[in-house]
Amino acid sequence: MAHNRFTWCGHSTFRIETGEDKVIYIDPYLSANPACPSELQKVERCDIIALTHGHADHLGDTIEIYNEHRPKIVAIFDLCWVLGKHGVAPEDCVGMNIGGTVDVGGVKFMQTPATHSGSMDDGGEQVYGGDPTGYVIELEDGFRFYHSGDTWVMADMEFIAKLFKPEVAMLPIGGHFTMDPVAAALAAKMTGVKRVVPMHYGTFPVLTGEPEHLAKELEGTGIEVLAVEVGQEFTLP
Ligand code: NI
Ligand code: MN
Q: How far away, in angstroms, is 153 Cα from ligand 1 center?
């Protein structure tokens, strides 16, 4: 089977083209993302969007992509409800909740908690958009990875390891709004993964955490830091 092709679009945004030719975006923060190069801002195809929470740097271009490509959107129930007010049809938003698993066309999404906040900009007003989340995503070939969303390190990461056994984790390292590299190193160990893809750093000046610091913290653990460049395609597993 063909590999799954991942592209980091900067911040917490990933584009995944699965071995079975599905295009998934996680937190499609593209047009307003200072780290996202212009060639990645254009969405040619999209079958599924997974949203970790409603903050603007994660919701990003969801509505525009939805209007153009009509993907299924996976999000916490309360966020789906707000998206409904912005034209997303109820049958297109797979509203779930923490602990649940949904199967969207052969791709499984296990929703995990995150220690963060969760609101959405609704015409200039911050409205409740559900609790913040992350996902363990199982692609069609059985490969499982964890995208934590914005979070602090949390004890639940041990449950994620035990229950879902992800092989790779995308973890924020920028600090200020999320974990820094020291906390992310602990998170990497707790989730039981072999490789970590650092995210949510460098986008803005306050997100000062760096992959080198994470790598130093993980020295001797056998956990590899996969510090991908924005726009560089990488394959997993
Ligand atoms: Ni956030
Ligand atoms: Mn964020």
A: 14
Q: How far is the CA of 57 from the centre of ligand 2 (A)?
A: 5
Checking DSSP bridges between strand 168-172 and strand 144-147, what pairing results, if any?
A: parallel
Cα of 21 to ligand 1 centre, how many Å?
A: 29
The pTM assigned to this predicted structure is: 0.98
pLDDT tens across 5-33, in order? 999 999 999 999 999 999 999 999 999 99
Q: Which residues surround ligand 1, an ion (CB under 5 A)?
A: 55, 150
pLDDT tens digits for range 60-90:
999 999 999 999 999 999 999 999 999 999 9
The sign of the torsion formed by the CA atoms of 182, 186, 189, 192 equals negative
